[in-house]
Amino acid sequence: MREPYTQLYIHLVWSTWDRLPLITPQIEPRLYGYILKKCRELKCVPIRIGGIENHTHLLVRFHSTVAIATLVKEVKGASSHLMTHEIAPNEFKWQGAYGAFTIRKSEVPMVKEYIANQKKHHAENSVWDEFEKSEIGEMVELEEEEYVEGEVLG
Prior knowledge:
alpha+beta; four-stranded antiparallel beta sheet; two-stranded antiparallel sheet; 38% helix; globular
């Protein structure tokens, strides 16, 4: 039996608790490596991971059998467990919310580059506002204003 062929790309963004600077240069490689490993376990293809001390970006091609919410729950849960039990006991926690942005295959190189240069973008204040809202709830509120009873306004 053949498997479905899909090109499903998602850019995920999530923050540390209260956007505290908890992702230090010393722990970043192990944390990011673990996140990438978890993606592969879920049959998803990690394309790029990056971020700064208070948030993480992940670009992934996800498998057709994995829901976005499941991917995020598993990745955040496993990485939080690693952090709180092996790397920084009682000192680490992810924020509960996250941002998820579907992108076209043609946008993958641009988003991959953006994620790779997170530290530079933040240092130069050249971030993409759409992906860098300080509160994920702000994005939801803005989007809800654009819809009325299932109709798109504008």
